[in-house]
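Reopening this ticket.

The earlier resolution said the output was attached, but the attachment link was broken on my side. Pasting everything inline this time so it's all in one place.
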Amino acid sequence: MVDRERALFGRIVVVMIGRPTPPSRTEVEARFTAILDGGQSRDEVDRWATRAMQTLEYAEVDETTWWALGMLAGIDLRDGPGGPYLYDDEQVLGWLTEFRERCGVIS
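Inline output:
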């Protein structure tokens, strides 16, 4: 049974299991990086994170991944129509750094 589809930079991965699985920490880190390097739009990342959180509402998800999804959901919000993003690139970089620290991957 197809549980859900996940898109990662245009590649569709079909997950064939009975319950939802959270994105890997590598996938989450890739979304932060994609925002900062222009690889994905903030809107795309927001939709991905929001969809993941809705799918995983009753699933077991590690605290660090759930925190990061919460940061990425709403990443496209602006301060009024046509205004600047509520969260600038410096804040996104700060969240990426914190995510890496929480994952224990800071070199």
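Reporter confirms the inline version is readable. The two ends are 40 Å apart (CA to CA). Residues 89-103 form the longest helix (15 residues).
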